[in-house]
Amino acid sequence: MAEKKIMLTQDGYDKLVEKLDYLKSVRRIEISERLKAAIALGDLSENSEYDDAKNEQGKLEGEIQELENKLRNSEIIKSTAADTGKITLGSTVTVTDVELDLTDTYMIVGSTEADPDNNKISDESPLGAALIDKVEGQTVQVHAPAGVIEFKILEVK
Questions:
Q1: Is 71 found in the same domain as 88?
Q2: Does 28 share its domain with 52?
Q3: Tens of pLDDT along 12-33?
Q4: Is 35 within the bounds of a domain?
Q5: What's the pLDDT score for residue 1?
Q6: Is 43 helix (H, G, I), strand (E, B) or coil?
Q7: For position 17, what pLDDT does the model report?
Q8: From 23's CA, which of 7, 34, 72, 87 has a CA 20 to 30 Å away?
C-alpha cells in the first residue's frame, strides 16, 4: 500500500532535513556517550542510567525513522495562486471575519507543517479546507465548534 503524500513548503522540508541531521549527528553521539558512561559503571541489571539511556536511544531511533519516512513521502508545495488566483497549498491568504470585523493573514500548509500560533493553518483544518480553491473577494462559511463563521477573502498571494 502506498503511503500518504506529505505536503510541505520548501521551508518546512528544509527544517525537517535540519532536524534529522541534528538527531543523527548530535543526539546519537550524546546518547552513545551516555551509554558508554553507564556501561562503565558495571552491573547492567541494576543500572538505571543504562536503562534510561537505552530508552532514550529507542525513542531517538523511532523519531529518526519517522522523519526519514516523512521526507521520503514528502512533496514540496508549489503554489499556483499567482497563476490561477485560486487558493492552494502554499498560498498566503488575508481574510476578515465578517461578523467581528477582524482581519488575519494565514499560510495554507500541509498538516505536518501546521502551526496556528504562527498563522500556518492546515488544508485539513475547517478554515483551510473552506479556503482551498476559492478566490479573492469570495466569502466562505466555516463550520466551527462555536457555530458557522463567515470569512471574506481579501487577498491571495
A1: no
A2: yes
A3: 899 999 999 999 999 999 999 9
A4: yes
A5: 52
A6: coil
A7: 96
A8: 7
Domain that holds residue 68: 6-76
Cell numbers 483544518: residue: 125
Taking the C-alpha atoms of 13, 15, 20 and 23 in order, what is their torsion angle to the nearest 10 degrees?
-170
User: Is there a domain that residue 101 lies in?
Assistant: yes
Q: Are residues 68 and 87 in the same domain?
A: no
Is residue 1 in some structural domain?
no
Q: Which of 76, 102, 120 is the last residue of a domain?
A: 76
Q: What is the pTM of this model?
A: 0.72
Query: What CA–CA distance (Å, rounded) separates 104 from 151?
Result: 10
Position 85 scores a pLDDT of 79
User: How far is Cα 78 from Cα 10, in angstroms, rounded to an integer?
Assistant: 9
**Is 20 inside any structural domain?**
yes
Q: Where are the alpha helices (DSSP H) in 5-138?
A: 10-22, 28-40, 48-72, 81-84, 126-131
Task: Report residues of the chain scoring pLDDT below 50.
Answer: none
Question: End-to-end CA distance of the chain, in Å?
Answer: 36
Contact residues for 39 (Cβ-Cβ < 8 A; gap 6+) = 50
CATH, residue 55: 1.10.287.180
Contact (CB, 8 A) for 98 and 89: no
Domain count across the chain? 2
Q: Given this model, what pLDDT does residue 39 score?
A: 87
